[in-house]
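# nightly structure sweep
# worker-07 picked up a monomer target from the shared queue
# config: single-sequence mode, recycle default, output format = structure tokens
# input follows
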Amino acid sequence: MRFVLILTILLQISACSSRIYGVQEEQWMQLSSDEREQAIEHYNQMEILRAQRRIEEEKVALEKEKQQTLIMASRQEHANKIYAGEAGVRGDLLRVTIRGGELYINNKHRHYSPVSFRIADGEQKVITFSHPHKRHYQIDVPVEYYDGVLSFDYDPDDSYDYRYNLAYEPEWRRGRYYRNITLHKHSPSKARNIEIIVEAVNLPRRY
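# output follows
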């Protein structure tokens, strides 16, 4: 029963008092030598278990990161083939223009210079938007095009999901205008009333 009491003490959490091997200092002073040895042994065992758990968690995280890196490398390789005209069909290569409205730049909603870029299916890009007069006022916004869905302000780490998605439409062949787009107030760009123009451009000629 005495050992059970020791374990109970070890599991107690107190932010107001110092601890010795996980035991509150005032309770530690009341333990016998044998009880202190048991407490130290239990504490060391728990530390070993915690260390092993951290190692396993790091291994899992590392393997997940490795797999994600391989996936992204494969997707980028496919995107490169689309740019080179070695793969893909009409709709796999887009010309995207973003203009109008405001973005949250340097802790304030501000106007920005229009940006136009190409993006291929499977690709992720970080697009830099700058203030039209103060070029050092900038914000980087991630954009992704994957499996026919264009995502503006997506999160690579999936810690939030405030992205704005546009799914492929046949009108993209002629160019489609999406106006008055406003993102969630907690999204990094905090976009207000922006306009996104999407056009499916011709793929490079294959020889």
